[in-house]
Amino acid sequence: MTGRHGIDRRSLLTSAALGGATIVGASALGGLDADAAFAAPMPSLDPAVSRSSFIDGRVSRIKGSTLDVVESDGTHRLVQLTNATSVWKLETVTAEAIETGDGLYARGVEMPDGSVAADAVWVNIVNLYVTVRGIERSRLHLSHGRNALVGHIVAKRTTASFRGGALTSDLSQLRIGHHAQVLGAWRPADDSVDIARISVGH
Description:
Layout: H1 9-19, H2 26-29, H3 34-38, E1 53-63, E2 66-71, E3 76-80, E4 86-88, E5 92-93, E6 103-110, E7 116-123, E8 125-135, E9 139-144, E10 147-153, E11 159-162, E12 179-187, E13 192-200
Parallel strand pairs: 3-7, 4-7, 10-13, 11-13
Antiparallel strand pairs: 1-2, 1-6, 2-3, 4-5, 6-7, 8-9, 8-12, 9-10, 12-13
């Protein structure tokens, strides 16, 4: 697509990925919240972007604004970060919060060299179906299949939804034995999870 001034917007986006210009952000391809990571792919809101590309893997190396991500089949993919890339790690953070070893889910636009210019990156995001086994003031004891899991309640971040109701920070309705869905951020150091949202009765 060529604009009024004769600029090919796809070429401009490529330049942005390599040069750091603000061209595309999370609003171009969809939202950034935890739900957006697991939503069905949607058409781009930017007519210059034909479709979104997705990368899911572990960060093996960080060089400047480029992440080397190893996917589950061992394939290495490069993710280019720009100053328009939105990064989620329980909350919106800067690219400096991404560390080697982090799990990463990235959405963006594939470049001619095969890399992906990311508009949104979710770091260590998990979507788990659990059973509540214990409730403490600052953490929940959960089971996921046969595995025990600690879920941390994060002040001013953790919310809950009960039977399809509005999100609330009040977890007092939570009971041992509840089956729930947890969206959150995995802590690689101890395999626990910081809870962004726990949904019961959906």
